[in-house]
Specification:
With 540 residues, the protein is α/β, with parallel strands linked by helices. Among the domains are: 52 residues, no CATH class; 208 residues, no CATH class. Helix content is 31%, strand content 13%. The strands form two sheets. The protein has a ten-stranded mixed β-sheet with strand order 1-2-5-4-3-6-12-8-13-11. 39% of the residues are buried.
Length: 540
């Protein structure tokens, strides 16, 4: 006999079954959602994947990255502005013989924010740090607390900082240079390249910045205070004609052997010697012979109580070939980035580390297509003053009159920097960044910037001498004609050896400056217009 269930009981059983299925489906859905929430918060396996894929659809920077990579946020820099239409330049005379105009009037622009904006943070445990976008242009240290003394910690990128090293290598696309000693001819000069080499050995091109400079031996009292702040490679070309050769060797030996800071000199400084073919020393030692006989450290420094009148150069009335020295030191630098400066200009500590970190961050202003250099503000301090360690201390020196802008009393317009008033109004921040992007036009058409650049930048004209003045003006024109941008750094500066320079009458230099101006106007400037072209607003 077949038994039939009552209709009500059958419907009840069916509803019960549907209810149970619904509860089970809801549980599965809830578990699925919870699992993705946990993954998004980094609690699950491969925690960055889910939301990164979502974000890449709307974020062009992250769209360039792989599924397991993300951009770490860095502190935003102050707003940038680009000077495209400077006001008409005033007329005036140039005391330095370079045809520069009178100092510019301050631009009435509200100062930028005094604090950098907030930075994004990230748990880096499962994060690969990568550049936000491909690097463009000829660009090339790491965030560190501001030093409390004038001594900077030694800094060269090492293999222990692999993320940073890889980013710098990728961004600079530079090649390593040889570190061999060599004997070369450069026009009318013999060059002893890498004659006394630093003990850092061969460097990878992305590992540091090289401070390149020039001098005769009477200026080498500046080397130790420079190194204490720079603490990175220094390439220095020493002019050593005739009888200046031996005291030059003596000073080098003294610095490397007789000072508490001698280890700093040996570690970082490479010396190159050069002299005219008409003024070769009577004897030039081979490298293995240089340090066979140690220097007598009981003697005073060879540069002590020696004036420029004692130099062979002065006795023979030779001109100082400043640009030959600049180019020798620059070409011998092992690193991609170069600070071509004068040995009496001391940087604020930590600059190398912070600059390389800024490059590694690869912010948007580094991705612009125009070539660029990174100018640094210059200052002078009173003879009895210490050299400021950071921008905060520098601003206090300026407030009380212990410091002034560089060459303010000699040729203020030669070193006037765009947005300098706003730069001074902005407080110091921990990191290094680009404060303003300017051009060498208008009020700043005769600007002689000192900057961090690369081997790709134009050389200095070796026909110009220190005595004839205007020795950097033609290189400035080349940068302008090539449409270089000047990315002015916010917390970086150089301070001249204590002692504020005054304008002094020098009839011989005035006569030589006149001849130099004729040489530039009649010969060099026409050549530059052919070689680099003509651009509106660019002048020598």
């Amino acid at each position: 006999m077949v038994r039939f269930e009552p209709l009500g009981q059958k419907m009840f059983t069916r509803r019960n079954w549907l209810l149970r299925c619904s509860i089970l489906i809801n549980i599965v859905v809830v578990l699925y959602i919870c699992s993705h929430v946990m993954v998004g918060n980094g609690s699950g396996f491969n925690g960055s994947t889910f939301f990164l894929q979502d974000r890449a659809a709307t974020d062009p920077a992250n769209a360039l990255l792989g599924n397991n990579e993300k951009v770490i946020g860095y502190k935003l820099q102050p707003p940038l502005s680009l000077s495209n239409a400077p006001p008409p330049a005033p007329t005036g005379s140039n005391d330095s013989g370079g045809g520069a105009v009178a100092p510019p009037a301050p631009v009435d622009i509200p100062p930028p924010p005094t604090q950098n904006q907030a930075s994004a943070t990230s748990d880096a445990s499962n994060t690969k740090v990568v550049a936000a976008a491909p690097f463009v242009g000829n660009i090339g240290g790491f965030a560190e607390p501001m030093n409390t003394s004038a001594v900077s910690e030694p800094y060269i990128v090492t293999g222990d900082e692999k993320d940073l090293e890889e980013r710098l290598r990728s961004l600079t696309k530079c090649y390593d240079r040889d570190y061999k000693p060599d004997i070369l001819q450069r026009g009318d000069f013999w060059v002893l390249k890498n004659y006394v080499r630093a003990e850092h050995g061969a460097l990878r091109c992305h590992e540091a910045i090289t401070y390149t400079t020039h001098a005769d031996y009477t200026f080498l009292d500046n080397l130790v205070p420079l190194l204490e702040r720079w603490n990175a490679p220094v390439s220095i070309a020493m002019h050593a004609p005739g009888t200046d050769y031996q005291p030059t060797i003596d000073v080098i030996k003294y610095l490397r052997e007789c000072l508490p800071e001698s280890n700093l000199v040996r570690s970082f400084t490479t010396f190159h010697l050069y002299f005219s073919t008409k003024h070769i020393p009577k004897q030039v030692l081979k490298q293995p012979e240089l340090f066979k006989k140690p220097y007598n450290c009981t003697l005073p420094p060879p540069y002590a109580n020696v004036s420029s009148g004692h130099l062979y150069k002065s006795q023979k009335k030779l001109l100082y070939p400043v640009n030959v020295g600049r180019n020798i030191a620059r070409d011998a630098a092992l690193t991609h980035f170069i600070l071509a400066s004068d040995i009496e200009l001391y940087p604020n500590p930590g600059l190398v580390r912070k600059f390389l970190e800024m490059i590694a961050r690869n912010e948007a202003y580094l991705q612009r297509k125009s070539p660029r250099v990174f100018p640094i503000h210059l200052f002078e301090v009173e003879a009895n003053a210490t050299v400021p360690r950071d921008k905060t201390e520098l601003l206090e020196f300026l407030r009380v009159g212990k410091a002034i802008p560089f060459h303010k009393r000699v040729c203020a317009s030669c070193h006037g920097i765009p947005q300098s008033k706003e730069w001074l109004a902005a407080n110091e921040t921990e990191d290094l960044g680009v404060f303003h992007i300017g051009k060498r036009t208008g009020y700043y058409r005769h600007w002689e910037p000192i900057y961090i650049g690369t081997h790709a930048d134009p050389h200095y004209d070796e026909r110009l001498s220190w005595e004839g003045k205007s020795d950097k003006m033609t290189q400035g024109y080349s940068l302008c004609a090539l449409d270089y941008e000047f990315h002015i750094l916010d917390n970086a500066f150089l301070v001249h050896k204590p002692g504020i320079k005054q304008l002094q009458k020098d009839n011989r230099r005035a006569m030589l400056a006149g001849k130099t101006n004729q040489l530039i106007r009649k010969i060099i400037y026409p050549e530059l217009k052919i070689m680099y072209g003509v651009r509106q607003g660019c002048v020598v």
